[in-house]
Amino acid sequence: MKKKILGPTFEEMLHPEKIDKTIRGRALKAMKEDPLDPINLFNITWKNNENKIRYFVMPKEITGVNANIVILYGKDFPTESHKVGATYSILMEKVIRNEIDPFYNTLIWPSTGNYGIGGAWVGCRMGFDSVVLLPEMMSKERFDLIREYGGKVIPTPGCESNVKEIYDKSKELKAENPEKVRVLNQFEEFGNYRFHYYVTGNTLLELSRELSSKGIGTGKITGVVSSMGSAGTIACGDRIKEEQPRAMIIGSEPIQCPTLISNGYGGHDIQGIGDKHVTWIHNVMNMDAMVAVDDVESKKGLQLLTDPVGMDYLSKLGVKSEDVEMMSQIFGISGVCNLYSAIKAAKYYDMTEKDTLYTIATDNIDRYRTVMKELDAKYGKMDACEAKVRYEMLFKGVKTDWVQEATYAVRKRWHNLKYYTWVEQQGKSVEELNYTMTEEFWQEQRDKIKETDKLMTAYRHSDD
Q1: Rg (CA), the chain
Q2: How would you class 170 by CB atoms within 10 Å of its CB: exposed for 0-12, middle for 13-18, buried for 19 or more?
Q3: What's the pLDDT tens digit per position in 204-246?
Q4: pLDDT tens sequence across 298-342
Q5: Pick from 227, 291, 290, 296: which is nearest to 267 by CA?
Q6: Residue 84 in contact with residue 120, Cβ under 8 Å?
Q7: Which residues on neighbouring strands pair with residue 36, listed in sequence order?
Q8: Are 351 and 65 in contact (CB under 8 A)?
Q9: 3-state DSSP of the chain
């Protein structure tokens, strides 16, 4: 029997220094020379070739707050987005348990962007036929990358928040060939949760200690801020709270689609978040607050950080040239949304230089060149005057509106919103839904991490 293609364990994604040195060396070499080689699965980690965490401390000239805001960025993952970690973890868990066969099954990846790109890359590297479902209004770059990585893509109606249409298409494809087709839904698959709980959460705990040794913060995490698409990334907060119970978990969504904050709905263009429902893998009972951010402001802020005119303006403000260059490389639209959300939280909670907020930059500007051209067409090209306006209004001028703190009643309302998607549409039972309110449910999900790693280790040492 042929060996299945598998990559790292959860522990190796957290600590790549534990990967066999020969394999790790081959993977690091392939990262530059052959990014489509399956050996790059061993590059799924938040750490670089020296096993140092990839992060960036935001200049306070940009944030305008005393609190430290630290960005964990995903641009150096395979596919240039950390979502590849979620797609790999979901697929790896099923392959190692013989629930999916690369020599038979076709995979369906329902997505609004980076998850689908990651699914095409991971699925094809592991030998699967991969089909990505993607709303037709997503950026051209997303469609191009999926095809470049070997996946097929089916456009579905609508924009970022049109997730039901993706679900409907998934059901249709599954019904056509139920034995062969497997739907890997990021919104309900707990491999997504487990990657971020274990790998991202523990990475941030390690980073907080590292920064404290450098005089940044106290070693305590004041909060983690993350906008929700699948609500995978925000699972890192569950791990952080186990060690630091006073750390806050602060979610974020678009003002144009404030689903959790006000049961709202609508279209928006912060690609990757705000999918008009509460996901199955979102532990809303552990959240402390929600904030909301405008989608046009997020796009205009990204342009300020990445356009040469904006970069020149920031340099003249006194921001270090290396920081200006770094910011131009690590942010996409949702990353700027997360940054605004962190600034908003720092202002709302009167945070000081002793406080440190952590947030995530999922992808980078290369996903959004066409979106920036659309901004130019609609609003005109940015000049120095417009750069100053954007800096003053969009960064220094972040307001403390659109903040909702979590009481038990608020958390329960967030939880209750799951009913309409998962019970009425997706076939979950009320008993299953209610069980997700308990800590026992989430502990059961976490316990599968060690089990999975044991299965992987055993498989590696098995005979062909």
Answers
A1: 21
A2: buried
A3: 999 999 999 999 999 999 999 999 989 999 999 999 999 999 9
A4: 999 999 999 999 999 999 999 999 999 999 999 999 999 999 999
A5: 296
A6: no
A7: none
A8: yes
A9: CCCCCCCCCHHHHHCHHHCCHHHHHHHHHHHHHCCCCHHHHHHCCCECCCCCECEEECCHHHHCCCCEEEEEECCCCHHHCCHHHHHHHHHHHHHHCCCCCCCCCEEEEECCCHHHHHHHHHHHHCCCEEEEEEECCCCHHHHHHHHHCCCEEEEECCCCCCHHHHHHHHHHHHHHCCCCEEECCCCCCHHHHHHHHHHHHHHHHHHHHHHHHCCCCCCCCCEEEEECCCCCHHHHHHHHHHHCCCCEEEEEEECCCCHHHHCCCCCCCCCCCCCCCCCCCCCHHHCCEEEEECHHHHHHHHHHHHCHHHHHHHHHHCCCHHHHHHHHHHCCHHHHHHHHHHHHHHHHCCCCCCCEEEEEECCCHHHCHHHHHHHHHHHCCCCHHHHHHHHHHHHCCCCCCCEEECCHHHHHHHHHCHHHHHHCCCCCCHHHHHHCCCHHHHHHHHHHHHHHHHHHHHHHCCCC
Pair of tokens at residue 265: 């709905």
Kindly report whether the global pTM for this prediction surpasses the value 0.85: yes
Matching residue, tokens 């270090």:
320
Residue in the block written with tokens 């599954």: 174
Inter-residue contact 90 to 191 (CB < 8 Å): yes
- What's the CA gap between 276 and 23, in Å, rounded? 41
Query: Distance between CA 264 and CA 267 in Å, rounded?
Result: 10
pLDDT digits (tens, 9 = 90+) for 44-77: 999 999 999 999 999 999 999 999 999 999 999 9
104 residue type, one letter: Y
> Cβ neighbours of residue 150 under 8 Å, at least 6 residues apart?
36, 120, 124, 130
Q: Are 16 and 24 in contact (CB under 8 A)?
A: yes
